[in-house]
Each structure stands twice: as structure tokens, then as C-alpha cells.
Amino acid sequence: MAPPLARRYVMHHLADFDDEALRTFLAAGDGDIAPERLGTALQGDEFDNLALRVARILPDESARARFEEARRWRESPAIVAMRRRQVLDTLFWALLYWHDPDAYEELVAGEQIHPGLLHSLDLDGRVVADLGAGAGRFTLFAARHASRVIAVDAVPALLDRLRRKADALELSNVDTRRGSFRRLPIDSAGVDIAVACSSLTSHAPWGGDLALAEAERIVKPGGDLVVIWPDAPEWFCARGFAYMSLPGNAEMHFRDVASAARIAADFYSEEAAQWVRDNDARVVPFAVLGVPPPNDACVKQVIPSR
């Protein structure tokens, strides 16, 4: 289920994506948005320009034909509204990163990855890939230990923020690259360890089997692929990952009560926001928010191909 903030987005917000972003977030496959659903969601003359752009980025003639047929087949307003909501909810995080990186950074500032988890990683002197790097919460940690960190993300605004932070900290070993989980701009066996910190998931557009194979491709044989705070640990374990979890770190920490209430209302629930107000709290248990804390990871050693 998408966070409450998702209701602020409408289909016209998709038009702000450049073509590379549309291709990253909308190209079908691995549980992505079906062309038929996209076509229904984009019914109406006001979406003609956006629909032309979407049709161009779909992966093959079959997908384009299904998309165009769905646009022509006039569904009821209720069905169209439902399909639009489904598309927008699926793309919520992409829309947030693109349109409101400030809100994203405010959220991430409160989500402190378990320090024991971070320090358990073998980063010293190694070449590290940060997949779905965002504005750099893992990159900046890793850069203090690694020889080099290749930070990959699909959203230019987040990479710009990451570069500015690295420059301010005088970290010269951070290499930012735009790319998607399915097309990582890194050579095969190009890194010693790849880490996805609350980014690579069990489904598209942020994951799935195609993305997992691509992540394994870039890791040297014997190196590790690490997924921190996985969305579905059982999915990763079924694909050869080992699971680890550490105790503690059970709360989110915000700069003030107003920030805590705003984040709770936008990303979790009004009930959580009311708890913040009632308790005048800037420290909020993850249990109140209804999500597990960022204390776990799935780890897989990449086996040499035969």
C-alpha cells in the first residue's frame, strides 16, 4: 500500500519525468505496470502527448499494441480512476524522488540504519557499489572506508545532492552514475561488494529477478551482494541469500515534533501522527508507525560462473 502522501500525485506528474526516467519506471517486466493498465490510466485527449512518449519507451511491439488498444477501449470513469490510482501508487517513490526530494531526505534523516549492521560490512579498501544510492546515506558512510564508491541512482536530483554532500565532506572517492537496477552502468565483476540500502526490492520497478541478476553481474566472484532493510526477506532467501537481524534501534529520530508529525502523517498514518502530537514526541517507535526497524539485511556471496 502506498503512503498517504501518494494522494497528492496525479497522472500529469508523470509528464515531468524525462524519457530515461519513463523507461526506468514504466518499461514492463518483472512485476512492473502492465501496458494495459497504463493505457487505461492514460485515456483522454489531455494525455495524448504523454501517451506518445510512453509508447516510445515500451520494450516491444506487443507491449505498445496492448497499450494503444487499452487507450482506445473506453472504460467507465470508475475503472479509469482506479487504474490511475494503481499506477500512481506503484510509482509513488519515483514521483517523490523526482518532485519532492526534500520530503524524501526528511524521511531518511529519521531512519537510522542499525550501526552494527553497517559496521559488519567488509568495506575497507574495497570498491563498493551503492545501488539506488539516493542522496547518499549509505554512500557517505561507505566512502569513509572504501577505496572507491560507485553510487548509482535513476534520479539526477538525488545524485546532485549526493555530490554536493561528498564535496562538502571532502570525499574524493565517490563516483556518481545515473542508471537503473536493470541496466547498471558498471562493468561485469567491477566491484568487490554491492550494497542496496532500502532500495533493491522483490519487484519492479526497483527490483525483481532481472534486477537481482544485474546486481550479481557487477560483483566479483567471491564478493558479496547485500540488501539492507529488505522488503521481503523470504523472497531473497529463496534466491540464495542469508538473513541477519540485530536487536535494538527501534525508533525514528526527528529534528523536532513538527517534523515527526508531518512525516508520520505523510508516510505512515494519521493515527501515528496523532500519537506524535499526543506525546509531544520527536522520537517515534517503529511499532507506532507499523513498520519493522532498519535492523536487518540479506547477504549473498556471488559464486563464480562455470
- Please report the distance between the alpha carbons of the first and last residues: 41 Å
Q: What is the CATH architecture assignment of the largest domain? A: 3-Layer(aba) Sandwich
The averaged pLDDT comes out at: 94
Structural class: alpha/beta
Largest sheet: 7 strands, mixed
The beta-strand count equals 9
What is the global morphology? Answer: globular
CATH topology of the largest domain: Rossmann fold
Count of helix runs = 15
How much of the polypeptide forms β-strand, as a percent range?
15-25%
Uncertain ranges: none
Within CATH, the superfamily of the largest domain carries the name: Vaccinia Virus protein VP39
Strand order of the largest sheet: 3-2-1-4-5-9-6
How many domains is the backbone divided into? Answer: 2
Supply Rg: 20 Å
Approximately how much helix is present in the residues? 40-55%
CATH top-level class of the largest domain? Alpha Beta
Give helix and strand order, one letter per element, not per position. HHHHHHHHEHEHEEHEHEEHHEHE
